[in-house]
Amino acid sequence: MARFKLLVAIISVLALFGCVSAKKYDASLAEIDTLKKDVSSLDGKLKQKEAEKASVEADLAKLNKNLDERNKELDELKKQNKALTDDNANLSNLLKAKKDELSANVTDLRKKLADKEAELNAKNAEIESLKKQVAALTQEKDALNLEKANALKEKEKSVTEMKKTYDSLMGEMNSEIKKGEITITQLKDKLSVNLVEKILFDSGSAEIKKDGKKVLERVAEILKKVTDKQVRVEGHTDNVPIGPKLAERFPSNWELSTTRATTVAKYLQDKGIDPKLLSACGYSEYRPVSVNDTDENKAKNRRIEIALIPKDVDRITPEEGQKK
Q: In 112-122, which positions are buried (b, 16+ CB within 10 angstroms) versus exposed (e)?
């Protein structure tokens, strides 16, 4: 098309600047028509070629796309193949390990079976030994039951004797009991004689009064017959602190309660109670029988307790002390 336009321009120039014959002019026009046809034909071919080129390019793009997809599929297949190869190798290793493990388990089970058989033989021997021990223990149990029965009889006898002692003390101390000066309690094989302070001591004193000695003498006359029990003398006070006048001799209620208990124990010894059975202890204000809120209750807490307890009992628990 560009070539045609150039040709037309040249001819037009020639027509302007030179004299051209009509024949030549017609020939030129014919040539121009031929050139136009040639150009048109060439344009058609060019468009056809361009269309073919576009079609080829489209086909090439499709081929490239298909090639990329095939390459991707190939890569994926390679990955899968590698994974399968790795899985196969891992499976082979796992199977080998399992085989080795099973072989080891079989060996171990055989060893355990042999050990169990040996253990069973040992257990059978142990059972026979235990049967002999059971027979021996049965004999020992029978002997213990007999001993327990005898001990129970002795216990019952001890309780009976304690009851006699309790009854004797109740009868002997009936007057003081009625006055509230003495209380006597029995808990199984434990017996307690509780004497309020005023019957034995003046306030702040650890010296037994004349009337108190008479009472203790009567108590000792009964208790010295008891030879299978401990005789423990306990001193108790209220929670009133020691006054200045007595502080030099008794710095606190500890010293007062302990001194009073010791004095009574020595007096009971003088009246015939075996000193090997006697003991004395002071509890100060810390084991009251009543709340120290009134003068009457404080008077109940100021007391001497003479407790008969089994020889194998070193102390009476606070709960047992409260039951008294």
A: eeeeeeeeeee
pLDDT higher than threshold 60 for residue 318: no
* End position of a domain, from candidates 118, 147, 164: 164
Domain count, the chain: 2
Greatest CA separation for the chain: 189
Burial category of 134 from C-beta neighbours within 10 Å (exposed 0-12, middle 13-18, buried 19 and up): exposed
What is the band of 167 on the pLDDT scale with cuts at 50, 70, 90? confident
For 224, phi then psi, to 5°, come to -70, -15
Residues near 176 by Cβ (< 8 Å), separated by ≥ 6?
Answer: 182, 199, 215
Q: Helix or strand or coil: residue 125?
A: helix
* Whole-number Cα distances in Å, 166 to 79, 90, 95, 129, 246: 104, 93, 90, 53, 37
Residues 6 or more apart whose Cβ sits within 8 Å of residue 20? 14, 28
Whether 160 and 189 share a structural domain: no
From residue 319, how far is each of 42, 187, 291, 312 by CA, in Å?
132, 12, 15, 18
Range of the domain at 306: 173-323
Residue 268 bridge partners (DSSP): none
DSSP state of 241: P
Q: For 193-207, how does the pLDDT look when each residue is reduced to its tens digit (9 = 90+)?
A: 999 999 999 988 999
> Are 185 and 298 members of one domain?
yes
Q: Which CATH number fits the domain that encloses residue 288?
A: 3.30.1330.60
Task: Let me know whether 107 and 219 are in one domain.
Answer: no
Q: What is the pTM of this model?
A: 0.52
